[in-house]
Amino acid sequence: MRTILTLLTLSLGVTMTQAAGQTVEYEFEGTKLKGYLAVPKDAKGKLPGILVVHEWWGLNDYAKKRADMLAELGYVAFCVDMYGDGKTTEHPKEAGEMATAVRSNIKVWQGRALAGLKKLASHENVDSTKLAAIGYCFGGSTALKLAYTGADLKAVATFHAALPTPSETDAQAIKARVLVCHGAEDKFIAEKDIKAFQDALQKAKVQLQFESYAGAVHSFTVKGIDEKKISGLAYNEEADKKSWEAMQKLFKEVFATK
């Protein structure tokens, strides 16, 4: 993964720095949450902040690794805890139950995401006018739901995520540029849902970049996912590289100006 990162950063002219990560406790409506903060080593001044939202497995090492990679690119990254107490699981059934419990309560779903964004924005090294959110699978849907609140985000990038169709009001509230990184062979995301999502954003005149990677299925960015032997989930190195590069390009553009 670090080799991939090096190639991508060199191709975009981004300087890498070492990052130092730490657990950060905070809460939302009495629920204790344990996020993960990654800050560039020797960070000085105000930097863009990136909220990272985990997959349905919870705030595991994969999400933290992505935060570390963002910090190495010079961003302050904060992994939000959507389940509480930093809970994670390796079992698909339990993961589905935890994700469903959050999605079924829109106040909790969006509220915990907003609490994480607030925590990120308040960091001493974060420029609160330069914020973005990324998410994987359940996390990508969460990043979109965060944008639907009208959160002050410059960009949202999703990776192999479900695409919840926003209401007209939700779509009009989006302030961010949106990047969707999608596996062309992802059977978990219905074509009708993709079209409904695209139509809603187009009608609201939201700037949307939709990247569909040939041969990629669900979880295409997650190296080692094949070991779970779950039908429809597989790592795709090319799609992983291209999607990370697309995200970096987007951030470079949106953070170039106020």
Short description:
The chain is an alpha/beta fold and 258 residues long.
What are the main properties of this structure?
single chain; 258 residues; alpha/beta; Rossmann fold; eight-stranded mixed β-sheet; 38% helix; disordered N terminus
Verbal overview:
With 258 residues, the chain is α/β, with parallel strands linked by helices. It has one domain: Rossmann fold (3-Layer(aba) Sandwich), CATH 3.40.50.1820. Helices cover 38% and strands 24% of the residues. It has 8 helices and 8 strands, in the order αβββαβααβαβαβαβα. It has an 8-stranded mixed β-sheet, with helices on both faces. Strand 1 and strand 2 form a beta hairpin. Helix 4 packs across helix 5. It is globular.
Give the helix tally.
Answer: 8
* Main CATH class: Alpha Beta
What is the number of strand segments? 8
SSE arrangement, N to C: HEEEHEHHEHEHEHEH
First-residue to last-residue Cα separation: 31 Å
Q: Kindly state the mean pLDDT as a whole number?
A: 92
What would CATH call the architecture? 3-Layer(aba) Sandwich
Radius of gyration: 17 Å
Strand content: 15-25%
Low-confidence stretches: 1-19
Give the biggest sheet: 8 strands, mixed
Shape: globular
**CATH homologous superfamily designation:** Alpha/Beta hydrolase fold, catalytic domain
Total number of distinct structural domains: 1
Helix content: 25-40%
